[in-house]
Amino acid sequence: MDNYDVEDPAAAIVKDTGKVAFRFCPECSNMLQPHEDAATETLVFECSTCHHIEKSLTACIYRNSLKEDIAETPGNVDDVLEDPTLPWTDEVECKKCKHHGAVFFQSQQRNAETGMALFYVCEGCKHVWSTLDDSKK
């Protein structure tokens, strides 16, 4: 089974995420489109190319999530220690290795709930932490 396959191909909602999954035709690999089977008044997915039909196990074909909790992420921090344009401080201690010395930068994912966040990358062990970590406790 590929990494992209859902365990149950007839399931429309991906496990543990609550998100609606795309469904693809097993015969021609085109995307299946939702339609109503007028005779049985049920939801089916039909391929517009080869007309393969699959019954839907759920009535959900679209989910509009108005707000998702997206965690702040620093992005790629592999080369930030060598970046001469980033500020450095020895006033913070790494919680992992207790080293005093870190490069820090501002989060680019600001919103009303979180405000500004600073990310620190330890000089000693490359551990990443944020000012948001302290505010969550």
TrEMBL record:
Principal localisation: nucleus
Annotated binding of Zn(2+) 1, by residue: 25, 28, 47, 50
Subunit structure comment from the entry: Component of the RNA polymerase II (Pol II) complex consisting of 12 subunits.
The keyword Nucleus appears for this protein: yes
GO biological process: maintenance of transcriptional fidelity during transcription elongation by RNA polymerase II; transcription initiation at RNA polymerase II promoter; transcription-coupled nucleotide-excision repair
Binding site for Zn(2+) 2: 94, 97, 122, 125
Family: Belongs to the archaeal rpoM/eukaryotic RPA12/RPB9/RPC11 RNA polymerase family.
The protein, known as: DNA-directed RNA polymerase subunit
GO cellular component: nucleolus; RNA polymerase II, core complex
InterPro entries according to UniProt: Rpa12/Rpb9/Rpc10/TFS, Zn_ribbon_RPB9, Zn_ribbon_RPB9_C, Znf_TFIIS
Zinc finger motifs (C4-type), residue ranges: 25-50
Subcellular location: Nucleus, Nucleolus
Organism the protein comes from: Dissoconium aciculare CBS 342.82
Pfam name, any one: Zn_ribbon_TFIIS
GO MF term set: DNA-directed RNA polymerase activity; nucleic acid binding; zinc ion binding
Entries under Gene3D superfamilies matching the protein: 2.20.25.10
